[in-house]
Design brief:
Number of domains: 2
Number of helices: 31
Shape: globular
Structural class: mainly alpha
Number of strands: 2
Strand order of the largest sheet: 1-2
Helix content: over 70%
Strand content: under 5%
Radius of gyration: 28 Å
Largest sheet: 2 strands, antiparallel
Length: 637
């Protein structure tokens, strides 16, 4: 390839085409990845999504600080209902746009006063592209892209990155109109970011860091960064001190109500102290860093009890922390982070870009990995934005440092091989996301003590068994249903009481899945026993879950009616009663409406069945099963 062709790749439009092609290549096969985890509660079963009346007030009341993200889900539903491909297309586009925002940001940074005279022309041309490629191809980014509801992480990151890119362009512009336009765009993206996810509150600090590091003299730079880091450590120390001295905290909160408000807003749960959460996150951050450089142990749902330090969590996994910041493991982890921050400050003169990358990594993690307690202490989607810092460090090593030690040919070869490795790993792991059973089997291998992993594996084995049954693979489906029960049994916690007796603890979701699995095997008595035991303690059940049990109860009686003609009328009446009770408990349950319509048709009440089918289609117009039944009934009428 001659120089003209090679340099052509550094043009903006060519790089946009390259990035588009690569994103499609690594994520294009994920359009059929199903809903996972919070996708159900936040999208599939969220009445705000499918019952939206077209006003922003509804979304504001539901989640004001995430209104932009939920608006995107609502609009997705308006076009695609619950067909996952539409949601994935939007997520992939957001990932691509985030990459383009980084390209704009880095193209601006290399032209800044601090870097323009340090970097070679070759580095200025290639560094932005390599940073973006590492960012968009890295397998650690998958959870924020392929896991639908984590659009909140990638979309907020897009607005965060776009804000920084617009800020740098405004600072570099000499034309007043151009400077004003970029400044206006910067403010717009800040507002969008703030109302997409709460972790974007650090944007002003990021912009101030860019100003200090890339546009100010060394003396101002070092003094400003030291003040910012010092203020950050002081802020964290202040809240930890309040927690350690409750009497002092009470006096301050009584005299300064604003502090009480801040305290309430900056914690998701009261079951975890700020000190214990910070102690946990010191090790979690090292896990995130290790996953970036070797993602072999990456998985969707980590075991809180074993991932940090032995003894951090109580045995019943109720998030009752017993570790303290001054324990040996957290304190050594903290010292390691402080040493890296010290290195970043030390490198501000010679390696300003690396210093910014390190500081940005910690800044982007500040909200979710410091003193703001969150129930789930670790999730990979939280690394999406911070990974930019590590991507910059890797790109700097490849583009700036490596050519000083090796020939250009060897440097290019290493870089290309590294990028191919990232893309192949991402493509392969995305392939695993397409197969829920494979994904959750991998998860329970990584975190065998995580109760939720076994529950969800059992659920997806049930779905697999149903599919096999429809295909006529009866023996195979029976084996799959039995495997689902085996997985679900691992989610049941057995404890020995002081009097020598044993008791079990079963989550609602485990019980529901055991009902379905036993029903699928024809073990109706066992299924009904699980239902009746669960409903007898209904004071502990949300209406949403009560309705699920009742729908399954109706389904069992429906099947018994078809299999026992002499008693079919009796069973069908019981099924109708269960479905109606489910609707009284939770009117938004679509399955109850669909199944009630089916039983009404069997009982010779087609007009009522049509009414319920029409109600379902008003909510979910893409339901082909309901469409088919409704058309058939209307033709008969």
């Amino acid at each position: 390839m001659n120089n003209w062709d090679f340099n052509k790749l550094t043009k903006w439009n060519i790089q946009v085409l390259i990035l588009t092609f690569i994103v499609i290549l690594t994520y294009g096969h994920t359009l059929d990845v199903p809903f996972y985890l919070d996708d159900f509660s936040s999208i599939r079963e969220n009445y705000i999504i499918y019952n939206w009346q077209g006003t922003l007030a509804e979304l504001w009341n539901f989640s004001a600080l995430r209104i932009v993200g939920y608006l995107s889900f609502v609009l997705n539903y308006q076009v695609h209902q619950f067909q996952v491909f539409g949601y994935h297309i939007v997520n992939i586009i957001i990932h691509l746009l985030a990459g383009l925002a980084i390209l704009g940001l880095l193209r601006g940074l290399v032209r800044s006063p601090t870097l323009s005279n340090i970097l070679s022309d070759e580095a200025k041309r290639w560094l932005p592209l390599i940073v973006v490629l590492i960012f968009i191809l890295h397998p650690l980014q998958i959870q924020a892209v392929t896991y639908i509801v984590q659009r909140l992480a990638s979309l907020s990151a897009l607005f965060y990155l776009a804000t920084m890119a617009c800020f740098i362009q405004a600072r570099l512009s000499s034309n007043k109109i151009s400077k004003f336009s970029w400044g206006f765009a910067c403010i717009l993206f800040i507002l969008l970011a703030f109302f997409t996810k709460q972790n974007t509150i650090t944007i002003p600090i990021a912009l101030l860091s860019i100003e200090l590091i890339f546009f100010q003299t060394y003396q101002t730079r070092i003094r400003g960064i030291q003040i910012l880091v010092g203020l950050g450590i002081g802020f964290i120390g202040f809240w930890l001190m309040l927690e350690e001295y409750p009497a002092f905290q009470k006096i301050l909160f009584e005299n300064i109500p604003f502090l009480q408000t801040v305290d309430d807003l900056t914690r998701e749960t009261d079951n975890i102290s700020r000190t214990a959460y910070l102690a946990t996150q010191m090790s979690v951050l090292w896990i995130y860093i290790s996953l970036f450089f070797w993602s072999g142990s990456s998985h969707i749902d980590y075991d809180n009890k074993i991932l940090i330090v032995k003894g951090f969590f109580s045995s019943n996994e109720n998030y009752s922390f017993i570790a303290r910041l001054m324990d040996s493991e957290p304190i050594f982890a903290l010292i390691g982070h402080l040493l890296i921050l010290g290195l970043a400050i030390y490198c501000l003169r010679r390696f300003a870009l690396v210093s910014f990358a390190i500081l940005f990594y910690y800044l982007a993690h500040l909200v979710e990995s410091s003193i703001l307690p969150i129930r789930d202490v670790i999730f990979e989607h939280r690394t999406y934005l911070p990974n930019l810092g590590l991507a910059i460090v890797c790109a700097w090593l490849l583009v700036v440092q490596l050519p000083r030690w090796l020939t250009i040919k060897k440097t290019v070869t290493i870089t290309v091989v590294f990028l191919i490795f990232l893309s192949a790993t991402t493509w392969s792991r995305n392939q695993m996301w397409r197969n829920p059973v494979e994904l959750w089997q991998h998860n329970v291998e990584q975190s065998p003590n995580k109760q939720r992993g076994w529950i969800i594996l059992g659920k997806h084995l049930i779905l697999k068994g149903k599919k096999e049954k429809k295909q006529g693979l009866i023996e195979q489906s029976i084996a799959t249903f039995k495997a689902s029960i085996k997985a679900l049994n691992k989610a049941i916690i057995e404890t020995r009481n002081p009097n020598g007796t044993k008791s079990i603890s079963v989550t609602t979701e485990t019980a529901i899945n055991l009902v379905v699995a036993n029903k699928s095997l024809g073990q109706y008595d066992k299924a009904l026993q699980w239902i009746n035991n669960s409903l007898s303690a209904k004071r502990n059940l949300r209406p949403f879950n009560q309705a699920k049990f009742l729908v399954n109860k109706g389904n069992i009686y429906f099947e018994l009616g078809r299999k026992s003609p002499p008693k079919s009328g009796q069973y069908y009446k019981k099924a109708e009663s269960a479905y109606r009770q489910a609707l009284r408990v939770y009117p938004q349950n679509l399955k109850a409406r669909i199944n009630l319509a089916s039983i009404l048709e069997v009982l010779g009440q087609p007009e009522k069945a049509i009414k319920f089918y029409q109600q379902v289609l008003a909510i979910n117009p893409s339901n082909s099963y309901v469409k088919k039944n409704l058309q058939r009934l209307q033709l008969k009428q």
